[in-house]
Design a protein that fits this description.
Blueprint: H1 32-46, H2 63-85, H3 100-106, H4 114-133, E1 143-145, E2 151-153, H5 154-171
Length: 174
């Protein structure tokens, strides 16, 4: 069993990620949709590898597991973005807690069909990319709150979300 990730990754909004190189501060919000689609395409391509189901070691997800996770991240953030955009601008809606590790086990990411995951990932990425592309400039400062109290604006949520995708593309490089 893989040890659950308990890091608070919100620091990626303040400094570049030393592992994957993503720099949220220098990434424009307007770049988010294209970079989401690029990341999903790269993960989809990685799912075609013969070793997509194989974990490189006992503590690291397989390409398949990372891709299933990213698919679900796209779905979760689509919901979170919609909550923020539907907000009143005064109160920050609170996001439901999501345990990514429990989801990976419950949904058996490791047993899913790579071709199905590739299709679902592409669909989820297209949907969230379109949602971010449609955000009007006057809505970029609308807020939302994670269950641990971390506050986001629409702008910072997009860049935080994008790091997750870029980082997992880095994780599956081959």
């Amino acid at each position: 069993m893989i040890v659950p990730d308990s890091k608070n990754w919100t620091w990626v909004l303040e400094r570049a990620c030393a592992e994957c190189g993503f720099d949220a501060e220098t990434t424009a919000f307007t770049a988010v949709p294209a970079l989401v689609l690029d990341s999903a395409t790269r993960l989809g391509a990685a799912l075609e590898r013969d070793d997509a189901r194989v974990r490189p070691d006992a503590q690291t997800w397989s390409v398949l597991e990372y891709a299933a996770h990213v698919r679900d991240v796209c779905r979760i953030f689509d919901t979170r973005l919609a909550l923020m955009l539907a907000g009143d601008g005064v109160h920050a809606p609170q996001f439901e807690n999501w345990d990514q590790d429990a989801t990976a086990l419950a949904d058996r990411y490791d047993e899913q069909d790579p071709a199905v995951v590739a299709r679902e990932l592409a669909e989820a990425a297209e949907r969230i990319a379109a949602a971010f592309a449609a955000v009007p400039a006057e809505s970029l400062e609308l807020r939302g709150a994670r269950s641990d109290g971390s506050l986001f604006t629409v702008d910072s949520l997009g860049r935080y979300f994008l790091h997750d995708l870029v980082h997992h593309v880095y994780d599956v490089r081959g």
